[in-house]
Every structure is written in structure tokens, then in C-alpha cells.
Amino acid sequence: MKCIYRIAFPVRVAKSRIQGKGAYAVGTIPPRRKIGSMGGVVISVREARRRVKAAGMTTVAMVELWNGLALDGTVNSNDLRYINHSCTPNTYMRVMGVHVEFYALREITTGEELTCDYGPTHHDGRLPCRCGSPKCRGFI
Ligand SMILES: [Zn+2]
Question: Per residue, what are the HEC states of 55-116?
């Protein structure tokens, strides 16, 4: 299943100090505003796990939805797939049906990297976290 994914607040993709590429605010994003939905295709969790295994740990953007479904953000993708994990994030992720939406937790200023607390991941707490936050939990 493919959907149209809109980004209300455009982001710029550039190298990140956290990991690989990151998504940076192009303008100010007011608190609690919806930034947009992550592009992707809806697949089964079983297929998602197979793809994660095949691609390696860090090159995928996979979000588990509900009912055995997952969103693969590497296909039909948009820039929001580059939002990195932080233990003190400035956005939060909300799953609405098959949509993975990002909202600003506070005002985000121009040039800030967008980050999100991934919560429990397929890494099962084994991947070292490099978010750099003083409150970093160490692993994701
Ligand atoms: Zn961290």
C-alpha cells in the first residue's frame, strides 16, 4: 500500500553528528505543530524483519504500526526518514493507522536537527546511542 505523505515544514537533509544523515529545520517550527508524515510503503512485520536483516542494522527506517504491519521508510520515502534518535528529542512520533506522523515537542529553530525518541526498537537496546545528550540512556 502506497500513500501520499505531506511535509508541512520542509527540512534539509545533511550530514549528522548523531548518525549518517539528519533532517534539519529550514525555518522555525512552532511547538505542537505537525511536521509531516514519513513516506514509505506498508508491509508485514515479518517482511520488515526480513528486510532489516538483509540491509543491516543502521540503514533502514522501519516503523512497526499495528496488526502485524510496518512502514518501510526506505521505499517511496521522504526526508522525514532521516530524523535521528535522541534521548532528549525535539519531536515525537505518533502512529495514526498506517501513517507515522511527527510533531514538534517545543519550538524548533532554523538549522536545528530534528530528533525523535524511537522508544523500543528492533535493536533491542544493543545499539550504542550517540545522541550526545547529557541524559543519554547509552543504548537504543
Ligand atoms: Zn542517547
Answer: HCCCCCCEEECCCCEEEECCCCCCHHHHCEECCCCCEEEEEECCEEEEEECCCECCCCECEE
pLDDT for position 108: 98
**Would you kindly state where each structural domain of the chain is located, as residue ranges?**
11-116
15 alpha carbon to ligand 1 midpoint, in Å? 18
- The predicted structure's pLDDT at residue 29: 98
C-alpha cell at 49: 524483519
Supply the pLDDT for residue 36.
96
Give the distance (Å) from ligand 1 centre to CA of residue 19. Answer: 11
At residue 102, the pLDDT reads 96
Quick one: 11-116 is in which CATH superfamily?
Answer: SET domain (2.170.270.10)
**Mean pLDDT value across the chain:** 89
List CB-based neighbours of ion ligand 1 within 5 Å.
87, 129, 131, 136
